[in-house]
Design goal:
Blueprint (H helix, E strand, L loop, with lengths): L1 E5 L9 E7 L6 E2 L4 E6 L4 E5 L4 E6 L6 E3 L3 E7 H5 L9 H12 L20 H10 L17 H8 L19 H11 L12 H16 L2 E9 L1 H18 L6 H14 L6 E3 L2 E3 L6 E3 L1 E2 L4 E2 L2 E2 L7 H16 L13 E5 L18 E15 L2 E15 L5 H16 L2 H5 L2
Parallel strand pairs: 12-16, 16-17
Antiparallel strand pairs: 1-8, 2-4, 2-7, 3-6, 4-5, 6-8, 9-18, 10-11, 12-15, 13-14, 17-18
Length: 424
């Protein structure tokens, strides 16, 4: 009996998903609970496990297509059925898979000529374009490329007019032949000008929607400051080896900024609040989202109750987020419910930017690259490792005075990290 592979529930209010890459193809064996296909929603990517051991018999929804929650996207047979009456059908399965794979390799503009017995004639996209412009069929054009593929040079040679006989050479040369080299020149001197339409992933579409939503619905404003990182760098250099030995995780800069943000949020609660017309909802806890670049796009997993976490726990969780985001293994519940966000563009070399808040949050702290710059210190010009920091905020809740005070609190805490120990 065929087992249906259905789109699982991937989150509240999500009714449609996009089919991601199939990890198993038709005819492939699969173990129980082994990942069969990736399911992409606008919030996260999840893997659909096989409900039983067996063999994939039919893929109903290929990668890139949309599907509804609960919809059947594939079929498989349990191992008992596959090992029984279907055993005789195993030998021809390989040619079937080969045919399917050869079809999936076909891309836009790739023309496949009728193949002769035992051969698979294929026309490269650039050659197909030359043949199409001349109105010539790819059938009968000999290919010199790998596997007998028809290359652009083959197509140009096949469509070029035959040289004129010697008897007509004395005839007056008309001006018409001159444009011919000009029309053939652009493809010869330039690279391939191809377009590849790629379906936007649900999470990328959702990111785009949220960014536009934030700009349309919130009164966004950004304030800036700069932070002298000398004290934190010195403290980190002094204790990084002992920290790693004791806690098994490296001491980075993010834990200092998370701690500084907690102190600033306690002092300026408007930045940690949410606008729910006609109310402003204040929070006594700090669920801080950490923006992380993942395989499918930017994700913002949340550090729950960051005000209660020690340095080692903050560093450990952020490191774990980074690894799992790259592997698309961030859970949906880890992306929900943040009250404030920290985005570190400095890891990519950004010197200054204006981050956009993640609705319905009211603030986001942007960190940037550390750069040595000359600054005035106690009446002298000195070289210090400086970082620009930016706070984007919703002006409906946060006034300029509070925003500047918040950012200055961040600056003071980072420049004097002993404040974190003394709670001053």
């Amino acid at each position: 009996m065929a087992i249906e592979l259905k789109v699982p529930e991937v989150g509240e209010s999500i009714t449609e998903v996009q089919i991601g890459p199939w990890k198993k193809q038709e005819g492939d064996s699969v173990a129980v609970d082994e990942a069969v296909v990736e399911i992409e929603s606008d919030k996260a990517t999840v893997e659909l496990p096989a409900p039983a051991a067996g063999r994939i018999t039919k893929i109903l929804k290929p990668a890139g297509e949309q599907a509804s929650v609960g919809e059947v996207i594939g079929l498989m047979e349990a191992v008992s059925a596959a090992a029984g009456g279907e055993a005789a059908a195993e030998p021809p399965s390989q040619p079937t898979v080969d045919v399917r794979r050869s079809e999936t390799r076909t891309v836009i503009g790739d023309v496949q000529a009728p193949a002769g017995p035992g051969a698979e004639a294929r026309v490269m996209p650039a050659a197909a374009r030359v043949l199409a412009e001349s109105g010539q069929s790819p059938a009968g054009v000999a290919g010199s490329g790998p596997g007998g593929r028809v290359t652009k040079a083959d197509a140009v040679a096949a469509t070029s007019p035959a040289p004129a006989p010697a008897s007509v050479a004395p005839a007056p040369a008309p001006a018409a032949p001159a444009p011919a080299p000009r029309t053939a020149a652009p493809p010869a001197v330039g690279g391939l000008r191809e377009e590849r339409p790629v379906m936007m992933s649900p999470i990328r579409r959702r990111i785009a929607e949220r960014l536009v939503e934030a700009q349309h619905e919130a009164a966004l404003l950004t304030t800036f400051n700069e932070v002298d990182m000398s004290a934190v760098i010195a403290l980190r250099s002094r204790f990084k080896d002992a920290f790693l030995k004791k806690h098994g995780v490296k001491l980075g800069f993010m834990s200092f900024f998370v701690k500084a943000a907690v102190e600033a949020l306690r002092e300026i609660p408007q930045v940690n609040a949410e606008f729910r017309d006609p109310h402003v909802v204040y929070r006594d806890y700090c669920d801080i989202g950490i923006a992380v670049g993942g395989g499918k796009g930017l994700v913002v997993p949340v550090l729950r109750n960051a005000e209660l976490l020690p340095f080692c726990e903050i560093e450990s969780r952020i490191a774990d987020f980074a690894v799992r985001a790259g592997e698309n293994r961030i859970k949906l519940e880890e992306l929900q419910g943040g009250t404030f966000t920290i985005s570190n563009g400095g890891v990519y070399g950004s010197l200054l930017s204006t981050p956009i808040i993640n609705p319905p949050q009211s603030g986001i702290l942007g960190l940037h690259a550390i750069q040595e710059r000359p600054v005035a210190h106690e009446g002298q010009v000195v070289i210090r490792p400086m970082m620009y920091v930016a706070l984007s905020y919703d002006h409906r809740l946060v006034d300029g005075r509070e925003a500047v005070t918040f950012l200055r609190r961040i600056k003071e805490t980072i420049e004097e990290p002993s404040r974190l120990m003394l709670e001053v």
